[in-house]
Structure formats: structure tokens, C-alpha cells
Amino acid sequence: MFDYTLADIQRAALTCDADVVGITAVTGTHLTAMECARLFKARPKPPIVILGGAHATQLDEQVALRWPVDYVVRGEGEETLLEIVSASPKGSR
User: Fold this and answer.
1) What is the pLDDT along the chain (93 residues), one digit of tens a residue?
2) For residues 23 and 6, what is the distance between their CA atoms, to the nearest angstrom?
3) Is 78 a member of any domain?
4) Which of 3, 33, 47, 73 could disulfide-link 25, Cβ–Cβ 3.0 to 4.6 Å?
5) Total domains, the chain
6) Residue 30 and residue 6: Cα distance in Å, rounded?
7) Alpha carbons 80 and 93: distance in angstroms, whole number
């Protein structure tokens, strides 16, 4: 288990040049996950942000409407994540 603080995530959001960022959230971590998404989407050239996990699976419509994410993945997301990245101009480099 990693123990990253929001300050660590903020540094990563400001310094990395990722085209795609995946975030997972369970209901107990959903506020932190939402803040992480917000930090990445606030970049001048924001990456595609994909949210998965139990929270996204159970509350997919709410998350899609209210969170700063581009995609919400329900259930097991490995294949879906690959499809999103492969179809994205940012992810196909």
C-alpha cells in the first residue's frame, strides 16, 4: 500500500506529462479521488482522466455528471481501459 498525500498528487499533476491518468475509488476514498481528478484536469494540457473502482461502478451516472473525469469504468476495467487508451489520440502515441 502506498501512502501518498494530496501534496504528492499535486506535485505529480504539475510535473508529469501523462496523456492518460487512471484513478480508482471506493466510497471511503471518493473525495480524495475526486480531488486527484480535479488536480489533473486543472493542468494547462489536461490528460484524459478515467475513474474506476467500486464507487464508480455503483454510482456511475452520478460520477459521470459531477466529477471532472472523461470516462467512468464500471466493473472490471482492464479491457475497457485498454480500449479507451487505444481509441484516444492522446493514448495512441
Assistant:
1) 567 888 888 888 888 888 899 999 998 889 989 999 999 999 988 999 999 999 999 999 999 999 999 999 998 888 888 898 888 776 555
2) 13
3) yes
4) 33
5) 1
6) 13
7) 18
In a domain, 56, yes or no: yes
> Is residue 69 included in any domain, yes or no?
yes
Give the amino acid at 57. T
For residue 7, the one-letter residue type is A
Angle value at C-alpha 76, between 1 and 47, nearest 5 degrees: 70
CA nearest to 60, candidates 87, 30, 20: 30
Give the three-class secondary structure for 23. strand
d(CA 1, CA 68): 25
Q: What is the per-residue pLDDT for 50? A: 94
Looking at residue 86, its pLDDT comes to 87
Joined together, the cell numbers standing for residue 81 give 481501459
Q: Which domain holds residue 29?
A: 19-87
